[in-house]
Amino acid sequence: MRDVVIAGVGMTRFGKMLDRTFSSLVTEATAAAFADAGASAKEVGLVYYSNSGAGLIQGQESVRGQHAVRGSGLEGVPLINVENACASGSTAVNQAWLAVAAGQVDVAVAVGAEKLNHADRSRAFRVMVSALDQDRLDEIRADLGTAGTGSVFMDVYARFARWYRERTDATREDFARVAVKNHAHGALNPKAQYGGTLTVEEVLGARPISGDLTLPMCAPMSDGAAAAVVTIPEIAARWGAEPVRLLATVIGAARPDVYGELVPDTARRAYAMAGLGPEDVDVVECHDAASPAELIVTEELGLCGPGGATALLRAGVTTLGGRLPINPSGGLGSKGHPVGATGLGQLVELADQLRGRCGARQVEGARIGLAENAGGYIGPDAAVASVTILGAA
């Protein structure tokens, strides 16, 4: 297998953009990625397009990517559509890596886009419910204690949070502290949907969503796109790019009736692929679709021992300026969560961090970045996870 790099990245702002089309979002993100790489669409041999909800939101099925790339210069390039819940974007990168590493093509593009906002808000909730086993909906809803009238995934995350509190010293205040931290980070990110100064009291006093979760602890419905140009080091050098090394990209699948093994197993395989350990990681983007998930994933990634994430949070270790900043972009809770673009958006942040391009939110001396996604629901855990590790050139 050949060495692979990400030569360029680009993304739109994440937010509520009812007036934007998929093609306009994709064109903006890919144009930025090509400019970053010093490349052009004519050099691309294969495109992987990630999206999760266009069928239910817009009615666009079957060839979503072939329509979405209209106007981007990628028309006519062989394209494979990727759908893998919240890990769709990172799965597209995984497949682009495989195509380049195996020598199928020399240049591949991973691009993800999502438009979850619609005049009919119920469509976005149907996207979330569609990630459950449709043959077992009544059983799952009864197990979660939900009538299906709200956000079913916040019910899932509320249960994860309850289980986490039962086995650690975590409090509702800790969950609120994660939201406070990530909104402060998001305020430094011009591409973030939200960001600003919150207090723990404000987060705890906000509108209840499910269990311990209040509105600022929950990722918003978002629109946006992100892209990465994947190639070999020799071509990146010819372009004059400033690449980052794609050290590991691993996809995991959960087993039914098993909880707590999915992310740790995926992370172990990623560390082995990269030849690194948790102690080597300098900056993390993790899937905080609800704020408690950041604490849970910090432990599942081996970044601390069981029950140790709250101590890191309280000591400021995971805040910008700390030893191991987590979600300097603002995370999903502040930056936004356009499902098909989320994993790619994480990698845009990490690539920029490793190249020292993040301004006020820059993690000084960052050399190794790790991104984690988890999505869907198999019960009692997520259905899919991915871990991607990038290294500075």
TrEMBL record:
Ranges in a coiled coil: none
CDD domains from the UniProt entry: SCP-x_thiolase
Domain Thiolase N-terminal: 4-193
UniProt cross-references to SUPFAM superfamilies, sorted A to Z: Thiolase-like
Record domain Thiolase C-terminal: where: 255-379
The protein's name in its UniProt record: Thiolase family protein
